[in-house]
Amino acid sequence: MAPLRIGITGAADIARKNVRAIGIVKDACEVVAVGSRTQAKAQAFIQETGLAGRAKAYGSYQAVLDDPDVEAVYVPLPTGMHLEWVLKACAARKHILLEKPLSLSNGDLDTMLGAAREAGVQLMDGTMWSHNPRATAMSRVLQAQVAPVRDVRATLAFRAPETFLANDIRVQPELDGLGAIGDVGWYCVRASLLAYDWQPPQSVTAHPGAVLNAAGVPLYAGATLLWPRASESEPQRRATLTCSFESSITQDLIITGDGGSLILDDFCIPHHEAQQTFTVRCHTGVGFQDLAVGTTVTKEEHRLTLPEPQEAAMWREFTRCVRAVQAGGAPDENWVGRTATTQRVVQAWYDSVRGGGCTR
Amino acid sequence: MAPLRIGITGAADIARKNVRAIGIVKDACEVVAVGSRTQAKAQAFIQETGLAGRAKAYGSYQAVLDDPDVEAVYVPLPTGMHLEWVLKACAARKHILLEKPLSLSNGDLDTMLGAAREAGVQLMDGTMWSHNPRATAMSRVLQAQVAPVRDVRATLAFRAPETFLANDIRVQPELDGLGAIGDVGWYCVRASLLAYDWQPPQSVTAHPGAVLNAAGVPLYAGATLLWPRASESEPQRRATLTCSFESSITQDLIITGDGGSLILDDFCIPHHEAQQTFTVRCHTGVGFQDLAVGTTVTKEEHRLTLPEPQEAAMWREFTRCVRAVQAGGAPDENWVGRTATTQRVVQAWYDSVRGGGCTR
User: Fold this and answer.
1) Among the CATH numbers 3.40.630.40, 3.40.50.300, 3.40.50.720, 3.40.190.10, which is that of A4-128+311-330?
2) Is A100 a catalytic residue?
3) Could you tell me which residue ranges the Gfo/Idh/MocA-like oxidoreductase N-terminal domain spans (chains A, B) (predicted)?
4) Cis check: omega of the bond before A235, within 30 degrees of 0
5) Catalytic choice (B56, B88, B94, B100)
6) DSSP state at residue A291
7) What is the interface pTM, i.e. ipTM, of the complex?
8) A114 contacts chain B (CB < 8 A)
9) For the purposes of burial, counting CB atoms within 10 Å of the CB of A279, is it exposed (0-12), middle (13-18) or buried (19 or more)?
10) In this predicted model, what pLDDT tens digit does every residue of B289-301 receive, in sequence order?
């Protein structure tokens, strides 16, 4: 079967990374069109990313949607533009891989989900690490060694330079008003959902001390998420999340259950593409020793050798989903559900920050 | 100089650990008396801990204070009894090493601090890890490599057995009503104070989802602590803490600053007495790579070989302070200040949990 034909709407930086990823899985999919605000910009992107001679350059996003050659679109536009272009893509019956966050409101989210459902197109968000085989291995280990999960602690942060804090789309309310929560907080939320087997939390409450820029966009935020108890006598299940544009680079994830803890410090962007690890700290039968010459915690490192980077795995999975629809099946509801739940929790976190939450 | 002569009021489990520690530093101090509710109990404790022939057994705590041989007392009594016995020890001019938490109210704390000051006796809390040479090494590395600190994330937890949750003094309001916050949360607070060079936070707010037992004693709690900004343009400084009697054993501490992160997973009770480590993740010049084939974080393991366990170091330090007072100096205000600040933050955390904080 010929590779799935992808069009890209917008020459964003993150699109370069995805062009590289699509190049790695060229047996599965290929970029056949790039649309930007001007044809010159689209052409420049095509030249820079090695797509010359293989992809058409368009001077508008609509032209990509109008191209009958294009089977699916990758939409890396600012969040504030998602509603318009998702609806247009649905109208054109193109499958959609959409950058996160999806929307700036739950209303927009529902409209997009409804349009994709009605058009019968696959909608998937661009969360690369969700498609990493390491995530599957983590799920298996959570079930086998850590379960039941009681606590998740996740932080994703980087220290944005002054130019970013002044100009980046992620600090502008109309473009990406969820700020750090929508950008890096998204991945922490996704990690907590993985840990709790994709069940949505029952409450999301911002911590005090959220930092907003002058336009009200979050630059730092923390939150506690609570999940329903499995039963009356069960301890509560929770997640404590922090995200930041003003801390140095941090990707810490600790998932603790009765059996142990799963730990990694590169959960979103792995330190190495081809060799990845996570650690399980085993707690079974462990206690503080009475005269405390130490504890007897044991640690086990899980090591994976991966043939392709996680973003390549994402494009394989998206292609698989689209092919299934093209073969007469339905869009993969698992991914749609994960996308929607992540977005709703992110929105709740933002609403709690803006509404006061327990912010001081 | 002959060893400092210590009396112990109460045959608590934690006292066994301290008898062992005092035995290790026998050139510095020694146990000469043990008082319990009955002389038989005191005698049994003395037999079991190898003090036979070296320590006198008393059938009351007061008898220990009345013994002119005793220069200082170790008070491992339940917190609810601290005020009475600290005041009596001060009246008897005995120096005091007091188990944490210190008090069940700020009023009691102030009364104890005032009495110790007036009597001119050293008051020190029983936070063993504070005296570990590793803590000093951590402070040095924080200043040299991590500074300025922006974020602290600390969790101390263990899964208490049913008998503990039913009967332990740490779940009984009149004995140790601060529960998990006073017991394990104390160490998280202390770690955050170490990270911020012992400055008190400006606010302490409980997270939602605190778990209290039927008598209102915290079994799980989280909190965000905020410190004053160093200047208007500086990012906020904060700590996110969790403590629990209902999670499996966890001692995670991550201190993040502009230069990197200091990380350890045994900050309170080291995995090994004689060989200890902590890790510094260096962030200088690090960013996510553009096409994200990975990040360039480097890690450096600091390894210490320690001649004595941390609780032995605590008894050396207490002895040093007492000897300085006996030589005509003043009690060490550093330790008194650290004790008092930790206690006030712990109290604020508890008050925020009980007062609603942002608890749901």
Assistant:
1) 3.40.50.720
2) yes
3) 4-124
4) no
5) B100
6) T
7) 0.93
8) no
9) middle
10) 555 555 677 899 9
